[in-house]
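> example.struct
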């Protein structure tokens, strides 16, 4: 019997680690396949999904042992950070089984975000899930977890007004920056980067009244597509120095491993600038903060300044998450018993077929019609005998401690049941 896999989350975020450490762990889309492959090659890791955003890096894993899985995942993160495990451990959070489910649902709902209620985490989680699907590192357990997490996130946003707590990191950074400078209404603004965060930045700036809007990106074609969607002007990346001379607000959100803006470049603009650095790793060199006339707002500053006290909408979101966690656990317990039920039915079929072969040998004079009637009667009797016990064991398995009933069946009938996976058809029968 193969070991049963359980859910494990290991990660760090703005709540537990500083920006320099997060920068060392942040993954670009191009790095994701190799990291996922490395994780699932570990002894205790069956499945893996990695979520990497501007303020968190965390691994969702299906592991066959808690301590072994934690050592495998934590070791991989420590190696990427260039630290020993004991050096990284104080910055890590670890969630196992039910706590892992709760964490996944809270993340998807925006309840664990730097800006509570921000909605773009859903897209980031969907991208992480998609990358794992492409790599083949997400199996039955993580597929179900992430699909349900995305559904729960959508439900929280649809049934509460949690979005009022904060639309996005972009809007929070803009609000913070405008507290130190003049409003952006009517001021020219530039977005560097044409990814999801760049698109969100353009939309936020347009709502805030910034005008005209410019966007630049190393791929000019992507910048043009984004500019067309948001009423902006796409400018070649090579013209960045001259662009800085024409704008008052800059939002930088690229996937560059090196800073896009440094002190000499910003100083050459010769004007006051509000710069929002929303990239991870950072797009703006730290020395830019010392350039006269520059107000720099980055992820580190936001994480130190934002305060998100609980309110009625957050409490409503937490209540939805709590209910959904219990529903997921009910499904999970029922899904765990499905292989045992399938094995019991298979054992019954084996016994019936063996007896029918024995009957055919001992009573060769029976006609095909008579043998068919006997076969049908025996199968019907066995199915009727098994029906109530298998229905009841599914019901009992959905309750806390229900695994004991499946274990009793396996012991009573000496069933060899692989517990690392189940038939999707069986699983769907017990889904909430």
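> example.seq
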């Amino acid at each position: 019997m193969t070991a049963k896999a359980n859910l494990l989350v290991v990660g760090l975020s703005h709540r537990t680690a500083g920006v320099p450490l997060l920068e060392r762990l942040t993954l670009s889309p191009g790095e994701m396949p190799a990291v996922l492959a490395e994780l699932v090659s570990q002894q205790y890791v069956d499945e893996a999904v990695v979520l990497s955003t501007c303020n968190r890096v965390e691994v969702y894993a299906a592991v066959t042992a808690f301590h072994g899985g934690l050592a495998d995942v934590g070791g991989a993160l420590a190696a990427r950070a260039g630290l020993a495990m004991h050096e990284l451990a104080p910055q890590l959070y670890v969630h196992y089984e039910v706590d892992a489910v709760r964490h996944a649902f809270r993340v998807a709902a925006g309840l664990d975000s730097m800006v509570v209620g921000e909605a773009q985490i859903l897209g980031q989680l969907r991208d992480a899930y998609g990358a794992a699907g492409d790599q083949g590192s997400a199996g039955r357990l993580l597929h179900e977890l992430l699909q349900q997490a995305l559904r729960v996130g959508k439900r929280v946003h649809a049934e509460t007004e949690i979005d009022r707590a904060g639309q996005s990191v972009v809007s929070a950074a803009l609000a913070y920056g405008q507290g130190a400078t003049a409003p952006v209404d009517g001021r020219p603004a530039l977005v560097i980067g044409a990814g999801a965060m760049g698109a969100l930045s353009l939309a936020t700036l347009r709502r805030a009244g910034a005008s005209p809007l410019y966007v630049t990106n190393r791929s000019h074609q992507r910048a043009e597509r984004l500019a067309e969607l948001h009423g902006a002007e796409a400018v070649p990346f090579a013209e960045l120095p001259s662009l800085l001379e024409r704008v008052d607000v800059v939002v930088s959100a690229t996937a560059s491993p090196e800073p896009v803006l440094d002190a000499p470049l910003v100083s050459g603009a010769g004007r006051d600038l509000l710069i929002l650095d929303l990239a991870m790793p950072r797009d703006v060199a730290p020395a830019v903060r010392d350039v006269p006339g520059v107000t720099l707002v980055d992820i580190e500053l936001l994480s130190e300044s934002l305060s998100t006290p609980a309110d009625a909408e957050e409490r409503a979101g937490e209540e939805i998450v709590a209910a959904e966690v219990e529903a997921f656990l009910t499904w999970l317990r029922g899904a765990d018993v499905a292989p045992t039920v399938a094995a019991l039915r298979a054992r019954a079929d084996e016994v019936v077929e063996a007896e029918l072969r024995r009957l055919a040998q001992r009573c060769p004079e029976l006609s095909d019609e008579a043998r068919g009637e006997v076969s049908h009667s025996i199968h019907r009797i066995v199915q009727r005998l098994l029906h109530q016990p298998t229905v009841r064991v599914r019901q009992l398995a959905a309750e806390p401690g229900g695994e004991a009933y499946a274990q009793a069946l396996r012991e009573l009938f000496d069933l060899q049941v692989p517990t690392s996976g189940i038939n999707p058809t069986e699983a769907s029968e017990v889904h909430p």
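> remarks
The chain is about 55% helix and 10% strand.
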